[in-house]
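Friendly challenge for the regulars: who can give me the C-alpha cells for this chain first? No prize, just bragging rights.
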Amino acid sequence: MLEKMEAINLDHVIEEFEAMTKDAKRIQLETLQKILEQNGETEYLQKWGLRSRSDPESFKACVPLVTHTEMSSYIQRIADGDASPVLTGNPITSLSLSSGTTQGKPKFIPFNNELLESTMQIFQTSFAFRNRAFPIENGKALQFIYSSKQFKTKGGLKAGTATTNVFGTPQFRNTMKALQSQCCSPNEVIFGPDFHESLYCHLLCGLVYCDEVQFVFSSFAHSIVHAFRTFEKVWEKLCSDIRDGVLSSLITDHSIRLAMSKLLKPNPDLADRITRKCLGLSNWYGLIPEIFPNAKYVYGIMTGSMEPYLKKLRHYAGSLPLMSADYGASEGWVGANINPKLSPEFASFTVLPNIGYFEFIPLRENYGDKEPKPVGLTEVKVGEEYEIVITNFAGLYRYRLGDVVKVMDFHNSAPQLKFVCRRNLLLTINIDKNTEIDLQLAVEEAAKVLAEEKLEIVDFTSHADSSTDPGHYVIFWEVSGEPSEDALQNCCGCLDRSFVDAGYVSSRKVGNIGPLELRLVGHGTFEKILDHYLGLGAAVSQFKTPRCVGPANSVVLDILCANVVRRCFSTAFG
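First reply, four minutes later:
Bragging rights claimed.
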C-alpha cells in the first residue's frame, strides 16, 4: 500500500459527499456565513455596508454583482504590498494568473489555503467515484502537467498560474500519492523552464514506466493531443534514449538532465518492444493502449472549448474510455464529475456546496433587456441555462465567472451542470450574435467536407473583421494536409451557411455582413500562439486556444495573419 493511502478512505469521501448534497441548502447558508464571518471586517465588505451581517438577503441587497474589472484595483493593491484586510481577513500570500486566452492578457486572482483545500477535496471526490467505476492498481500516472514561471510581485507575493500554485505544494504531492496517482516524471520535469523539454521528458518517463501506467492525464484534452502529436515526431529519438540509457542532447536544462539520469538505464529490449509496437500501428490508431497496456482510461477537461479535440483523442485512445475532469476556473472550483462512465459530450458536474457560495443568473431570452435576479444553488431548474456567480474564501464576492451552464439534473439536492460556453465570447458585426458553441458547430459541419479528402482540422479560431466594409467573419484553420480548391471552397460555404443565428442570416442576405472568409495557416501556427502565451507566463496546463480573437489580442491576430498560406471567400447567399 502506498504511503499515506490509509489517510484517504474513498468510501468515506463518497459518504461525506452524499451527506453534503442531500442538505445542499443548509450547507450553502453555512458556507456563506463562514465566508462573511472570516472576512466581514475587510475594506471591501465594509464599503458596501454589510455591517457584519452574514445572511443571504443582506448580502445580496448590499454587495453588487461584479466582474474582474471592478475587482482589479483591490487585487492590484494586494499585489503591490498592501497588507491591510482589503479583501480577506487573513493575508493573501500568493496570486494566480488566469490563462489570458480569453482577453489577451492574464489576470491576477487571489489564491490562499482555502482554495488549495477545495482543490484537494475536488480531486478526492472525483477520484473516489472514478475509482469505483474503473479501479486502478498501485502504479503510476502519465501526467502531462507543467508549471509556469513563478515571480514576485511588487509587494513580494508569489504569482504564477493556478496550476503552478497547486502542483508545487506538499498537499498536492501527498494527495496524488494517496490516490495512487503519482506522476511518472520527477518534479524537475514538471517544473522545468522549457515546455518542449518537459514534454519530451514526460513522454520518455511514460515509456520507461509503460507497464506501470494506470491512466493518462493532463488538465486539458488539447495538452494530451499535443503530447501524442509530438510523440509521432520524436518516438524514434525516445527509443534511442531508452536503448542507450542516455538522454538526448536536445535537453539542455541541467536539473532535468540530472533527474533523468537517475531513471534512464540502457534497455534495448524495451526500446525494441516500443519500436515494434509503433511500426505495427495503423496511422497511430490506439497508440495509448498499445504503448501503455495497463492504462484504464484517459482523463482531462474535455468539455466546452476542448470538445473539438475529442475526435483526435479518441483516435489515440482506441478502446480506452475518455473521462472529463472536474469543472472549475482560476477563480475556484465549481463541481466534480461523479458519473465517469458518461462520455465527455454528456458529462455534467455536481456542485460541491461547501467550497463556495453560488448564485445563478437566468439566461432565458424572454427576460428582455432587464437582467433577472440571481437564484440560489438549490433554486435552479433542470433544462435552464444560467451564468454562474461565485463567492469564495479568497476574496471574490458575487463574482461573475462568465461561464454559461445548463442544469442537466440534480444529485440529491445539488445541481448537475453542463458547461455550455463562455458568455462573452461572441462573433458579432451587426445585429448578429454567434457564441463559441455556434462556431464549434459550424466548424464541425465543415470538417466533414475535409474528411472526404482524409484531412482533419488541427486547430481553429475566428475573428470579426470590422476593417472591411461591410465587416465579415474570418475563420482561421490549421489543416493536417493540403485540401483541393474545390474542398476549400465547399468548406468556406459550409461554414457560412452553418451560422444559423437569425441576425447573421438576415444581415448576410441584405449585405450588412460580407462573405465569410476562410484562411488556412501554415503548419505549426497554433504552436506559435501557444509559445506566445507561455512567454507571458501561462502554463500549458491552463492553455486554451482562443476561439475568438478580438482587438485586445492583437499579437495573436498578427501571428495568424503572418502565417496565412491560402484563403477563400464564401459564395453562399449570392
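The radius of gyration is 24 Å. Residues 1-5 have pLDDT under 50 and may be disordered. Your move, everyone else.
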